[in-house]
């Protein structure tokens, strides 16, 4: 846990004084990722560098796991926090293994333990130790070097990671990939992370909470969903963009919005006339057809009219398969593409888990929007 209490940083004195961070108070909970977000010069890096005492604090306090960092030895403090920066800062004259091992060496680990840890970390960041351990930084691409930066930050298994635009220098395709990998890693490691970014997309993707800064002041500290749907002021809404409802759709999962017990289900082995009558009686326009609890397609009264066989031989297949974990954006996209307003949703085994309709999507967006008023 990291607690910032009225943290102020002033660089310089007199007329040249610059207030880089201004009376900032918030808490990063254990195991959570807080993304510090805002335009260039708003004080993000300064916040981060005060956290491991690379910068002094002018006023206020920072506590780590309940302890004031000013009561701790700065060198020791830094060994408990991994630090990953955009410029990477790998030593060109050291091998990859040597670069990753810097903190473990300072901690006096023995050779075998360091070697095992280096290999473990290289596997963790998806680089084959046999190939990369003895190479030099220049022999790696920018994205691979950044992976080494992440591995180095994690080397001594610190509780806390400070990351300053760690993926900022990587091209968009590789950045997306390394972000995905890092998210998977974090799901297992559950580090407490302070992550600086100026990119709203990255913030939404990586954050449990987003801290938005303007001119050194903390403007809003909230979940990505809340930042998008209930921005504190015009600065925040401008910063997140006019398409914020669409951005929320990239964040929410189908499982958050789906209908768990839709009524329009029929079993594959049922006779067509029976299904047709049921659909006409209830005014159903279409029904999902399940076989062994797996969605195999849908039927409509039009498809069943004058037919005698089983519905499974008459189904139209769904043009796309949607899973519970997929973002709502993908469901909406499927609806727009295929001019359909309702899709079955499958769990990880391909079994029927529920359905997702346009109305379900709209409802979950509006719920977020009105959460405060309902409160
Ligand atoms: N060492 C320094 N000396 C003087 N001013 C600084 C120093 N470091 C940062 N600043 C100023 O503090 C403000 C915040 O900088 P910074 O924290 O680097 O912003 P960000 O990371 O959000 O781009 C800026 O106005 C910057 O010029
Ligand atoms: Mg910065």
Overview of the molecule:
This protein is of the alpha/beta class and 375 residues long. The chain is built from 17 helices and 16 strands. It folds into 2 domains: 2-247, P-loop containing nucleotide triphosphate hydrolases (Rossmann fold); 255-364, CBS-domain (Roll), CATH 3.10.580.10. 39% of the residues lie in helices and 24% in strands. It has a 6-stranded mixed sheet with strand order 6-7-8-3-9-10, with helices on both faces. A 4-stranded antiparallel sheet has the order 2-1-4-5, with helices on one face. The chain has a 3-stranded mixed sheet with strand order 11-12-13. Strand 11, helix 14 (272-282) and strand 12 form a beta-alpha-beta unit. The longest helix has 18 residues, at 172-189. The protein is elongated, with a radius of gyration of 26 Å. Bound molecules: adenosine-5'-diphosphate and magnesium ion (MG). Magnesium ion is lined by residues 44-45, 196.
For the sheet with most strands, the description reads: 6 strands, mixed
**Rough shape?**
elongated
- Cofactors, ions and other ligands in the entry: adenosine-5'-diphosphate, magnesium ion
Number of domains: 2
Oligomer: single chain
Specify the CATH homologous superfamily of the largest domain.
Answer: P-loop containing nucleotide triphosphate hydrolases
